[in-house]
Specification:
The complex is a heterodimer. Chain A is an all-alpha fold. In chain A, 25% of the residues lie in helices and 0% in strands. Chain B has a three-stranded antiparallel sheet with strand order 2-1-3. The chains are: A mainly alpha, B mainly alpha.
Chain lengths: 69, 165
């Protein structure tokens, strides 16, 4: 599984900020920056709709809970 | 006993912090459905601003715009080259990820602020109006246009406020 680099360019394409499951915290872009340390309430996941996910051939969801691949 | 200049500096810091805290408290009170309490916080915040400005003036730290810009450039540069990098290192060592990311978000914006002030210092009265955008979630600042999501916190575009400045 490729590692997603934590660049500002890729972060600008991240859609975590629109996600109903995103914890109330500054951090997002979890597939690059790793899991949230907050409790993730699974109310749906947008990872499969994200261009970053497509570009890096990611296939799973909820990186906010599971951490970076 | 501290001297008056030290007391003025402490009072300026305290009043400045009180201003920002009261505005944050007001926002929280609104979120909790208490708009009237929020208004009281905003009244106090406005008063603390006046106190802070007066202390700054008496300290002799309110100079002409050229000097104020130079001080601002120096302050922003110090923050993103020395202060926040050190704070981030300490937060990592203490395994405090929320603090590390809060410092990272501020650090990223401070670089932009320094450049914004540098342009102002170079052009002064000839400075032209531009479009700026400030992320209301993390404070990241942009000029001309915004990305689809904030590059720091991934907040969506509608959470990024436009300023003409």
């Amino acid at each position: 599984m490729p590692v997603v680099p934590d660049t500002l360019e890729d972060a600008a394409r991240c859609i975590c900020g629109r996600c109903p499951s995103k914890p109330e915290e500054l951090k997002g872009f979890y597939c690059a920056r790793g899991a949230s340390r907050s409790t993730v309430l699974r109310r749906g996941c947008l990872c499969n709709q994200c261009d970053v996910q497509l570009d890096f051939d990611l296939t799973t969801e909820y990186y906010c809970a599971a951490g970076a691949p | 006993m501290a001297d008056t200049m030290t007391n003025l500096a402490d009072a300026f810091a305290g009043e400045s912090q009180a201003n920002r805290k009261y505005l944050a408290f007001a926002k929280k009170a609104e979120e909790e459905g208490m708009p009237q309490v929020a208004k009281r916080f905003r009244v106090a915040a406005a008063s603390e601003t006046v106190h802070a400005h007066e202390h700054l003036k008496v300290m002799g730290e309110l100079k002409d715009t050229s000097a104020n810009l130079a001080a601002s450039i120096g302050g922003e540069n110090f923050e993103h080259t020395a202060m926040y990098p050190e704070f981030m290192d300490i937060a990592v060592k203490e395994d405090n990820e929320d603090a590390r990311f809060s410092f990272f978000a501020a650090n990223t914006a401070e670089k932009f602020h320094e450049n914004m002030f540098r342009e102002a210092a170079e052009k002064m009265a000839d400075l032209q109006e531009s479009r700026f955008f400030v992320c209301q979630v993390c404070g990241m600042t942009y000029e001309h246009e915004t990305p689809d999501a904030c590059v720091v916190c991934s907040a969506p575009k509608h959470r990024i406020e436009e300023f003409i400045a």
